Structures are given as C-alpha cells and as structure tokens.
C-alpha cells in the first residue's frame, strides 16, 4: 500500500501537489469572502432586470412597468461581511453635492490652510527628528568608508571572509530559491488549469466578476434611461464591491501596485512623446527636397543625423506606398486585389518584376489584353468560359473582375482614371512596400530592423523602432545595401549601366567623392576614363525625382554629409538644401517631470559620484574584495543599468538646425531634428564606419611610449628634423647649402 | 541634464505633492454643516479634533 501511494506520488511532477495545496488554500480563503457569490447572483439579477427594462423602454417609452434594480445598493448577503466598509463618499448624489460645496468652502478656509501648514510642519519635524537619529549611523558609515580607502594598503588578496560567507548564502540559498520560483512560475504558466482556477477564484472573491456584470447591467440601463445622477450611485457601488479587495491586499502590495501603475502611466506618456518627435522628424523630412546635404564641424553628429534621416525616409517611402495601396483599393473596391497581389508576388519572387519599369511594362501588357476583351464585347461570364476553353490564353487579363456590373473607370472630377492605371500604381507601390531587405543604399553600413509580416494575403510592415527587443536583434536585423555610384551616373560609368530606381541613397563625406572644381582642375570632360566631370552625377541628381514617381509621389531621396559645403562643387551642392548643425543638445529621457526617474535622478547622480570616488580610491589602494565593496559595486551597477536602459529606451537629444539653399546666399531658416536613442543609436552604424581606409596601412610596431620625446622646452635642429616636415626639411637644406 | 532643468523638475514635483496633499487633507477635514452655522460648535469641533 505504502509503495503504491509512493508510486502514485512519484509518477507525477511534485509541483502538481504544490498547486493542489495552493488551490485548496485559495478555496479556503472563500470563508473570508462569504458574500462574493450572492453579490454575483445579485448582479445577474440586475442585468436581467436591466434587459427587461431596456426592452420595455423601447416598446413603451416612459411607461415602463419594470423597475431596474441596478441603482439600489447591494443587499444579498450570506453572512456579515468581515471587511470594514470604506465610507469615503455618501450614498446619494444629493448628499455628495452638499458635501462638495462644503469641501470647496473648507478648501479656501484660512484655518484649514493653516492647519495643513501645521500638519506639514509637524511632518517635517518628525522626519528631521528621525533623520537626526540616523546621523550618528551616517557618521559611523563615513568613518568606515574612509577606513576602506585609508592610506594603509592591505596586503590581503582575494575575497574577505564576510564576502565569502555572503556569496555562499547567495549561491546556495538565494539563487536556487529564485531559480525554483521562476521555474515554478513557468510550470504554472504551462498548466493553465491552475492559474485559470486561481484567477477565477480571486476575481470572484474580489467581486471583480460582479463588477464586470454590473457594468453591463448599468450600461444597458443607462442607454435607455440617460440618468446622469445614477453614475454617482454606480461609483459608490463600485467602491462597495471593491472593499474586500482593498482591505485584503496588504498596504505594501498596494504600494508596489501603485508604483507599477504610476510607472506605466509615465512610460506610456514617454512613448507618446517619442512617437510625436518621430512624427516631427518625418514632417521636417517631408518639407525637404529630394537632395539634402548636411554639414557641421567634426563630432557634431552629421553621420548620425543622415542615418536618422535615412531611417525615417525609408519608413516614409513604405508609408507612402501603403497609402497608394489603400487609395487605389478604394477607387475600385470590387476589384479582386488579392488575385493581383498573388500574381505580383509570384512574379517578384521569380524576379520577373524587378523594378518600377518592369512592373509598368507588365501591367501595360495586361491592360492591352483587358482592352481587347472589352473591345470584343465579352461579358465576364463569356470571357471566363473562353479562358477555360482556349488553351492559348495563358492568363486571365481581367483577374476575374466583374467589369459588367462594376466600373472600370474612376472619375474624380479632375480626370478619368482607367482601372489599369490604378493597377499600375498599385503594382508599383506593392513592389516598393514588399521589399524584403531595405530601400537604403549607403556608402557605409546601417543596421535596419523593419519587419514584414506576411501570412499570404496582404503583407503588413512593422516599422516601429521603439518597441524592438534588443535580445532578438539578430533575428530581425539586416544591413543596408552597398551603394554603387554607377547608379547615380548618367554619363560615363566605371563598370556598367544601372538604371536609377526608388530608394534612399545615403553618402557620408560626399566631398571626398565628388571634390570641388579646384581639386578637379586636372580632370577633363573629354577624358577616356570616368571622372567627376564626365559622369553627369549632378545631372542625375537634378533628374532623379523623375526616376521613381508612383501616383504623383516621389520615391527617391538622396542624403549626404560633408564637413565644409565649399568642399563639394557648387554644381552638386546647389541642387538641394544645405542643413547646418548649429547646436547639439543634451541627451535626456523624455519621461514626464513627475516620473520616478526624475524624482530619483538627483539622488542617483549623487550616489554614482560618491561611488566613483570611492571605487577609484579603493582599487588604487587595495586589491582585495570586501563585502562592502561588493554590495556597493553591485547595487550601483544595478541602478546604473536601470538608468542606462531608461536612457536607451526613452533618450532624446535635439539638434538645432539651420537650413539654407544650396547656393548658400539666403537667410538661414531654423528647425529641429530629434535624435531618438532607441531608433538612432541602437547599433545603427559604427562611428568609425570608414575606418577601413586605414586598414591598408602596415600596423604599428611601436608603443606610444616608445616614440621619441623632446629633450627640453625648445626642440633642437636634430629633433625638428625628425618631424619629416616640409618646412623643417627646407630649413635643414638651407643650412646645409650655406655650410 | 543641466541643473536648472533638474531643479525645475524637483520643485514641480514637490509643488504637485504639496497641492495633492492639501486636496486630501481638506477631504479629511471638511467642516461639518452645523459647525458653519454656529461658531461655538466650530470651537467644539476643533477641540475634539
């Protein structure tokens, strides 16, 4: 018998038995909430009566014989409630209004104000008294701290006895316990029946189920009664229903819940602000032309700005494409767009449709077929039969559209648009929208993380930069395309002809590539080889907007940066606007001022400064690890990590920009661009993105300490000769000639 | 984050706390209806409080 019981117990995961015990415990808690079930039953009665009242009001308004019960206070009870009622508000609205008028008269009452000030004073007095009690301990702590970093270097190495003991507890007790709890939570999450039971029981005990039913009962009642005063009664009833929950949950738990909710509100506000700033960036971009050049001093964040602009421009192109898809869909709502999408998907995957020209050519061929069908006088039914019978017809040009009953032209009072013109724009937009990689071409690598969700119907892009989980970064990231300058050359090319198509072209340090007329003195238009004078790059910039237009929207953007605008020839620069980074603001999280972050920020800065001083001294003087240093390092590290995470997620810095036309002769116009850390600094590009320029050189074999230093305040002739300077070499040569 | 902005935030938060505190304090110290009418009773109320 014993062994059988043992076998039964061992055959199941022991955690099931823990779950059974917890379930029994929660069931037993039911004695603390004796009125939960009667209250639920009562709300169902309210709901039933409200429904009857609703029907009655519709049949004979104003002369309803049914009295709804939703406005009366709960009365069904099995036992006296063990929870003391919360009597914050009077039971009726009239009493409440009377009390409210007295509230405001008290609010402005001098005695009340003085009483409050006295209360605050008393509070501060007690805080100060407890603070004074703590002062000696602070003194002891300071002395102890000093002893850690006093000038008596410890000869000890490794961990102190106290730290070893602490770590033992941590590794043997705390970590395994935490791991077990996490494991148990995962187990419960897997076994839905347990937590469903527990959640249901607590919803019942805390009257939350009753609140949901009561809400519907009141909603139905209110939709016909329009009884404004009854809202107050519902509020009082809600408080009554929630009393067991409010009283049962301990204050500390409420405090934690409060902090979590408060933090959630603050972070939601921060997210709203991030989206707003990104919308402002997009609006800035919309106002710019096709070509935008950024310049500023070294380190002002030019490359960061153009990267940020490119990211926004890419999303803008996709949004525009999606807008076109919806717009065309709405013009011909009964066209089988899904069939067209299926057709396009296959053709794009087979690389038959690679760019806008290919798409246009294909759709025009289809239109030709469609026009023939119309011209020949087919109806959709006869055409369908013909397609079925005639094996020579490989494809139904009409996509099965019922052109007999639905229109194939669209009149917007400006022009008549043919169905296939709309299809052409739709197909081009579809090509842009469903790009699997990226539309960015750059001369440095940019990480991108747009996700395309496709279950075989209409694909949808997820371009939300701010909700990405960095732990999954590798799974959804990809780098941008390598730019091929031949794409931007209308004249001579280095290798082959590329036809420019849609995309965002990003060029950092464009002046090094294009140079100005002074530097290009030696190169000629008539040269055999492709050079800056004969490649017609500037002409391409002038004309590029014509290369990628869909439904009157331009799908091309060229963004470049350089250190001095004069370093790029005027022919190129004058095509677009020049954006100067006048000022770079400070990085700060966009959380509202009352968020926990800002309330604690001052304290944390203070702690971090103290820790930096302490840690620098400590690591200088001694090499052992003590319990105190362990705790100080780890606590500061945890807080620091939290602050880094907050800054990473909600960080923002403002670049003050001055805009001028490329001719650099007009008055500068001021504007702003927000660098948002989650979007722009999430491993987007390497600050040393062009460092491969130096990779070709032989690596150094000398340490910086081994380079020769000057012997005295003034360098000798011999020392100056070591500079490999033109000037110093000239001087040396003059001396030699004179000698 | 420069100091003025931090100070503004801290003082704003303190001001909001002070105001919310006063709203709650007033809610718990509403003068009873009869006390408004009779000054002698108001004194009684204050003593009892």
Low-confidence runs of chain A: none
Radius of gyration of chain B: 18 Å
Detail the poorly predicted runs of chain B.
Answer: 35-49
Tell me the number of strands of chain A. Answer: 17
Order of helices and strands of chain B: HHH
Whole-Å distance between the termini of chain B?
Answer: 46 Å
Number of helices of chain A: 25
Q: Give the averaged pLDDT of chain A, no decimals.
A: 89
Helix and strand composition category of chain B = mainly alpha
Structural class by sheet pairing and helices of chain A: alpha/beta
Give the integer mean of the pLDDT values of chain B.
70
Strand residue content of chain B: under 5%
Termini gap of chain A? 117 Å
Strand content of chain A: 5-15%
The largest sheet of chain A, given as strand count, sense and whether it forms a barrel, is: 9 strands, mixed
Percent of residues in helices of chain A: 40-55%
Give the tags.
heterodimer; A: 739 residues; nine-stranded mixed beta sheet; B: 49 residues; mainly alpha; 3 helices; disordered C terminus
